[in-house]
Amino acid sequence: MLWVAIAIAGLVATAAAVALAGRRVLFLYRLATSGQPAPERIEYARRHAGAEVRAQLVEVFGQRKLLKWTPSGTAHFFVMWAFFILASVYLEAYGALVQGAVTGTPDFHIPLIGTWPVLGFLQDFIAVAALIGLIAFAVIRVKNSPKKLGRGSRFSGSHLGGAWLILFMIFNVIWTMFLFRGAAVNTGNFPYRSGAFASQAVAKILPDSEGLEATGLLLHIGVMLVFLVIVVNSKHLHIFTAPLNVLFSRRPDGLGPAQPMRSDGKVLDFEEADPETDVFGRGKIADTSWKGFLDFYTCTECGRCQSQCPAWNTGKPLSPKMLILDQRDHAFAVAPYLLAGEKEKESLSQDVLALLDKPLVGEDGVIHPDVLWSCTNCGACVEQCPVDIEHIDHILDMRRYQVMIESSFPSEAGVMLKNLENKGNPWGMSEMKRADWIEELDFEVTLVDEKMPEDVEYLFWVGCAGALEDRAKKTTKAVAELLHIAGVKFGVLGPMEACSGDPARRLGMEFLFSMLAQQNVETLNEAGVKKIVATCPHCFNTLANEYPQLGGHYEVVHHTQLLARLVEEGRLTPITPIEEKITYHDPCFLGRHNKVYAQPRDIMAKVPGVTTQEMHRCGERGFCCGAGGARMWMEERIGKRINTERVDEALTTDPDTVSTACPFCLVMLGDAINEKKNAGQAKESIEVVDVAQLLIKSVKQG
Ligand code: SF4
Ligand code: SF4
């Protein structure tokens, strides 16, 4: 009778919990699919099936990103694998539940492998490892408590109570498992004779009692059922949604080209688009695509993104984590409206209706404009996010609505837009000036007018800064000279080159981006350009990754990639020693966005005399200079200036030179260093140079 009663209780509780969880899952599904379609995500996953399978193995099962944070990553690794392996214990528990009711003896084992000591060992080992993981999590949470560290805590803003509840529930899963298994050892119903070391040890301190075994079994199942209901109603939903979010994110890590604007799943054609009927970016939560909703559901509130964000770290209100969480909370709050039929809408409470009037972005909106405009598109958040949430997509879509529909953006950026529109460059200089730098060289440079000459291998994409900004022009001339010395034939477009459109796109002015990009693609295609070398990582990223969206397909390299190859092949030989200590700053659009970390360092390593020292934040955790995301064209009024923060960090390495590989980084870091020099906080001799300038110095003087 005991086992029949236990089985009835267990199965009724299971049915109730599954019904509750199922209802919630259905709600989440309906909410996500009430958003904009995103067929491109399914198409992308289909076309990159191999990469997607690899991503599931590496990111989800291998926990690649989490393991970069060693203590918490290791703890999470074991807790996550406990979920998989302990599913076999639940199989045994339900087997015992049913078998006990049918035969009166709950001595169930999984067919074929169910008495294998290795399985018993694995179950106990992972449970103990998860228990240690829980202790590690608790210590990490206490040490990083927002109460102690304030903004400096990555958990600041997260729902802390919910996180502790989850830890408590996992703890309950583990101790009830050992109670049930230990009692089963004593009653002779345990499937393993050896291997399950912890269960067998627990058995020694438990009485031999069938009642205890039944209680342990029921508690173990009950805890899991309560946990299931909590999970689907909490941030721990990521247990189920993370594999999906990884599947539908862009590979390799959610970074990649800015996406074209879509309305109802189709790319917007600006000649036909109608702001009245088409979706222009995101002005309300209902404009979010289902992938955006999946991002909301998947955020674990771990705060890794926040801890890396240059805006957050310099006192600005933007936290990429809160950007996601605030939208998520709003989406849940207005869900009754989004999911209601026309008639039901009329009977909704005033609270829900009032929320509907809340703009997505605005002084009283879900997202404050200062949050939206603080982003440099540096990608540190996306790079670090263990579940591949694509914060930049959210930011860009909201900016698009603000710029194109509301005409609401920092007024300084308006000058840049006007200059781009009228002159094709952000400074508003005459296009004729684009070739002025050539006159300062002592060799001829091919100006491509209509067709690339047969013997010219590369189109050197100079970029607006490279052509018009004095400091960046030095890089341009250095690269041209190096290519000339190495015998690489190249040509330039001169006045025919227009801005790649990156600043317009990153600001949210997609229409202007599309105009500039189409013009450039036409010029490049008509000239028959196949290979491009660019010095500006923003141009490099746009030409290589975003122009294919408009029919521009080229083999694009950054100058550091080409120069490193030329040095490797012996076509450039740095021989004059440069006895300097150099620290290298990774440009975000070269490093994180395009994974070019090694080549600039390879070049410096080949220059005799150079010693290098990395900054604390380098490589994939490099800290932005503050210029990306069109921030170069906006005032930085809140908090510490990002370029000053970066230079402070550079100065801790006591460098003679700060090197980089981007004209915008060059300007931002140069400005900050000059301020430091003026304040007597940096030695007068410190210079900020491009890696190409170092190389030419060593190659030429030799
Ligand atoms: S892209 Fe960079 S600046 Fe923008 S939210 Fe992410 S980390 Fe912050
Ligand atoms: S967005 Fe990603 S990194 Fe940021 S808190 Fe959420 S899960 Fe963590």
**Class from helix and strand fractions:** mainly alpha
Strand percentage: under 5%
Number of strands: 11
- Can you give the helix content as a percent range? 40-55%
Q: Report the principal-axis shape.
A: elongated
Placed side by side, the strands forming the largest sheet appear as 3-5-4-6-7
How many structural domains in the coordinates?
4
In whole angstroms, the N-to-C terminal distance is 94 Å
Report the total helices.
31
Contiguous uncertain segments of 5+ residues: none
Question: What Rg do the Cα atoms give?
Answer: 30 Å
Question: Mean pLDDT, as a whole number?
Answer: 95
Bound molecules: iron/sulfur cluster
Taking the sheet with the most strands, its summary is: 5 strands, parallel
Report what the structure shows:
The chain is mainly alpha-helical. It folds into four domains: 2-33 and 69-246; 253-409, no CATH class; 423-568, 3-Layer(aba) Sandwich (Rossmann fold), CATH 3.40.50; 581-699, Rossmann fold (3-Layer(aba) Sandwich). It is 55% helix and 5% strand. It contains 31 helices and eleven strands. The strands form three sheets. The chain has a five-stranded parallel sheet with strand order 3-5-4-6-7, with helices on both faces. A four-stranded parallel sheet has the order 9-8-10-11, sandwiched between helices. Strand 10, helix 30 (663-678) and strand 11 (687-690) form a beta-alpha-beta unit. Helix 8 crosses helix 9. The radius of gyration is 30 Å and the shape is elongated. The protein binds iron/sulfur cluster (SF4) (2 copies). One iron/sulfur cluster binds at residues 308-311, 318, 320, 375-381, 391-392. One iron/sulfur cluster (SF4) binds next to helix 13 and helix 15. The chain crosses the membrane at residues 75-97, 118-140, 160-180. Residues 290-320, 365-395 form the 4Fe-4S ferredoxin-type domain. This is 4Fe-4S dicluster domain-containing protein. Keywords: 4Fe-4S, Iron, Iron-sulfur, Membrane, Metal-binding, Oxidoreductase, Transmembrane, Transmembrane helix.
